[in-house]
């Protein structure tokens, strides 16, 4: 049975070094580029007709637009409109990373912690910069809930501060762990099917069970791909709201 972890290995496709830094074009880079191309082609073809009665592609793009817009309205408020391009792009990047990885012989770039950490840190740093830019040192009041007794304030402040700085960790680990775990399970059951087939005629019958189970898992992984993109994006919206609106 093939090693289920081998699918996560980053392989240089175009070796390139700048000084002591390895900036090779890898399989991860390739599938990130494919994700960019797929999203550009889809959105270009979808909005090009500008029809009064939208076709399937235009309807899909409009539904995606409205989905992200309503997410921002409900979780950030009117002040979040200016961040629509960022949130929209974030959702598309994560969604494509999750779903393109289900294609055989592809690579799931969201299954690597370095990618998810980079996305989470981008949101985290943006929240800090916006918070201090809009509120100055009043931003620290975010860490003391209203109505907190004075004697308890120092302890609550420390707890809230730790919770705040843990956000990029939980945001990134949740996405990478779900993607990695799901793909490992898919690979394991696919390995079972291949191993059974190698046994001969009896093995072909035995291979039906893991094959069917794997088909169900792929459908489930598609759902997980969407849910994880949704969770990552909606949490980013909630964190962004903390920077924009400090009520105490």
Short description:
The chain has helices at residues 27-47, 56-75, 84-100, 113-135, 153-197, 201-206, 208-244, and strands spanning 12-14, 17-18, 21-22, 25-26. With 248 residues, it is mostly helical. The chain has one domain (24-244).
Which SSEs are present, and which pair or pack?
Blueprint: E1 12-14, E2 17-18, E3 21-22, E4 25-26, H1 27-47, H2 56-75, H3 84-100, H4 113-135, H5 153-197, H6 201-206, H7 208-244
Antiparallel strand pairs: 1-4, 2-3
Helix pairs in contact: 1-2, 1-3, 2-3, 3-7, 4-5, 4-7, 5-7
Please characterize this protein's 3D structure.
- With 248 residues, the chain is mostly helical.
- It has one domain.
- It contains seven helices and four strands, in the order ββββααααααα.
- The strands form two sheets. Strands 1-4 form a two-stranded antiparallel sheet.
- A hairpin with a 2-residue loop joins β2 and β3.
- α1 packs across α3 and α3 runs antiparallel to α7.
- The longest helix is centred in the last third of the chain and has 45 residues.
- 23% of the residues are buried.
- The model has no long low-confidence stretch (mean pLDDT 87).
Q: H/E series, N to C?
A: EEEEHHHHHHH
Q: Proportion of β residues?
A: under 5%
First-residue to last-residue Cα separation:
58 Å
Number of helices: 7
Parts with pLDDT < 50 across at least 5 consecutive residues = none
- What's the β-strand tally? 4
Structural class: mainly alpha
Shape: globular
Fraction of residues in helix? 55-70%
Overall pLDDT level: 87
Domain module count: 1
Rg from Cα: 22 Å
Strand order of the largest sheet: 1-4
Largest sheet: 2 strands, antiparallel
